[in-house]
Amino acid sequence: MSKYTDDQIFEKLKDILGICCPDLSIDTVTKDTVINRDNGIDSLNFIMIMSKVEAAFDIRVPDADWDRLSTAQDVIDKVQEQLALKA
């Protein structure tokens, strides 16, 4: 069981989005937001976001899985999965 709730991961993800994408209105980000297309987030920003997510939770998301991460919820689920593998 992860020591983080989905909501805690989501809040941290929004913090990271705010840092990496200062023009993004964080108030509009939901768990259904497509973070690699919506709001002008390009592939370079997505790499930076995921690198910060990995660092924040001390996990490693396999490169092959990155293409499957579309929404904020996908990222949350992947963080939870990687945390469970570490436990």
What does the model show?
- The chain has 87 residues and is mostly helical.
- 56% of the residues lie in helices and 0% in strands.
- It contains four helices and no strands.
- It has helices at 6-20, 43-57, 63-66, 72-86.
List the helices and strands and how they pair.
Layout: H1 6-20, H2 43-57, H3 63-66, H4 72-86
What are its keywords?
about 90 residues; Non-ribosomal Peptide Synthetase Peptidyl Carrier Protein, Chain A; 4 helices; about 0% strand; globular
Q: Summarize this, please?
A:
The protein has helices spanning 6-20, 43-57, 63-66, 72-86. It has 87 residues and is mainly alpha-helical.
Q: What name does CATH use for the topology?
A: Non-ribosomal Peptide Synthetase Peptidyl Carrier Protein, Chain A
Unreliable residue stretches: none
Strand-pairing-aware structural class: mainly alpha
Q: H/E order of the elements?
A: HHHH
Count of the domains: 1
The fraction of residues in strands falls at: under 5%
- Measured between the Cα atoms of the first and last residue, the distance is 8 Å
Return Rg in Å. Answer: 12 Å
CATH class: Mainly Alpha
Query: What is the residue-mean pLDDT, rounded to a whole number?
Result: 91
Count of alpha and pi helical runs: 4
CATH superfamily: ACP-like
